[in-house]
Amino acid sequence: MSDIEFKKDYDITHLTTFGIKTRAALFAEYSDWKDLTRICRSDEYNDNEVLHIGGGSNLLFINNYNGLVLHSAIRGITEYDKNDAENTVFVIAGAGEKWDDLVNYCVEHDLAGLENLAGIPGEVGASPVQNVGAYGVEAGELIHNVEVFDRLTNKVETIKGTDCGFAYRDSNFKSIWKDRYYVLRVSFRLHRTNIASNLTYGALRNLQERLGHTPTIREVRDEVICIRNTKLPDPSLIGSAGSFFKNPIVRKAYYINEMTNICPDIPAYPVDVMQGDGHYAGDVEYVKIPAGWLIEHAGLKGTSIGGAYVYNDNCLVLANKGNATAGDVVMLAEKVRRYVNRTFHVWLQPEVYYIDTDIKVTILGSGTSKGVPEVGCDCDTCISNDPRDKRLRCSALVETMGMKILIDPSPDFREQALRLGIHNIDAVLITHEHYDHVGGIDDLRPFCAQGKINLYVSENVAQALRRRLDYCFKDVLYPGVPQLRLEIISDKPFYINGLEVIPVEVLHGKLPIFGYRIGKFAYITDIKTIDDEEKSKLEDLDVLVISALRDREHFSHLTIAQALKLIEDLKPKQAFLTHLCHEAGRHNELDQRLPDNVHPAYDGMTITVK
User: Fold this and answer.
1) Is the domain of 106 the same as that of 64?
2) Predicted model pTM
3) Could you tell me if residue 322 is left (phi over 0), alpha (psi between -120 and 50 degrees) or otherwise beta?
4) How many helices (H) and strands (E) does the chain have?
5) Helical spans, DSSP H, in 33-186
6) Coil, strand, or helix at residue 182?
7) Quick one: 205 and 155 in the same domain?
8) Residues designated as active site
9) Would you give the distance in Å from CA 542 to the centre of its chain?
10) Residue 1: inside a domain, yes or no?
11) 88, exposed or middle or buried, with CB in 10 Å at 0-12, 13-18, 19+?
12) β-bridge mates for residue 94, sequence order
């Protein structure tokens, strides 16, 4: 490992565009796949969280990164003529090349295709991940293949561009392949000509008329840079991530029936939307709404919090006055999202990744299937005036990496969402199909206006939901039903927008169900037994939330004593008991008889995992 330098407490501010001071506990660069192989075998790699970054133009570090940051130093640009009638040329660029340097190379060498993407910050390696796009062109339309390093096999592979699942600001690299591949090189299919062909975008449509001739790719490149300079701040002068929010895509019916009733002047443009099966939705019409227009017409131009502000020349940009903190940017982004939703009934989604290892967990419900108080019961717990003894059905909300992930929409979910002011849900994890864990699925409707919400479920749960809620999963849906997509998972880790989720299989009596681990937090409910292999997934936890029904034996639930024994075996720093019935007793009394690091959960409590 002598030729790989791991730098400690390294300042990575120059590898981001926000201009907010950020450091990494460890940092390393690599110049080829052999370097990567050596890095992946190192203790520094295997003993730390790992983040791979390019130019950092889509990243907001909430805190210093307590792990290993990797950066590609693979550079070089080569070209190969196909010698066909279309003058096709394949241009191959290293992942560490500056994107704009590649665009300029192509323009200078009369290679047409990328000129509309001039001026975009970042590096080539991000282009297939983000599917960067601007002025009527997306990188995915031009990517021929992607050379990658597979972390699972430590081998180099080549993936066809057609297999990358490119969609609006999206690709398989951001979802199902997240953290599996490191991009080494990207090959683009271009054409040897200096004549531009893509002038469909509004700002370029009159360029030919103004010039009096068909524009060259150099003229298009220069025009795009001029337009960008009037709309976007130079990151070397004003810190930003460029466009902070995605342009929302909504169903045309929602746009017409809901949004234009609020404001008839809202602009909208037709767009194809990629479905989960990789096909475009041909039977449903969608439109894209300019997020910058929504922000400006919600009265937010120039709005600031601390050192962060909405850029006056382009409201899609959140910029740094020079003294912004990450917290300023996050608070401003949330204010923008709330105001836009309040004004136009649409939620903006960040295009920027929040790099945040903190996890906030809110217990939405801590009760068993009957809830507490039980109907018709007047025991001491059920008649208690302590609000911590009012236990709705079991559910939790996990917030991290800028996302809100719901675990189990219980039959009380509507009340839970209203109590806590939940305005959006990005994904749903379901433990099993019992009604007290899925009875609130229909109440997800308000969160589906902008498209389908992914429900991560086992195959057995998917079959049960299709039977029980068949109206949600028909080929043709009547208006108003929840827009849901069932994502089938196994006991293997999967990713939600880059966040690793580890399913943990336990037995609820004889029924196999899933708990979930995210970082150093795990949520296990309705458990009776767990085998050693699955138990190993729960090692080195900071926080464990686990069900403990009552003191009396139960055929499919842990008793409080059994839960405490499992907690003792797993040794989390803290544990919280949930899925409590009224027999578990009052909160205060139960808390007093538990170990110091174990407490009863209660509805509305929040837990932060650092």
Assistant:
1) no
2) 0.77
3) left
4) 16, 35
5) 33-40, 43-46, 99-108, 127-130
6) strand
7) yes
8) 169, 243, 351
9) 23
10) no
11) middle
12) 185
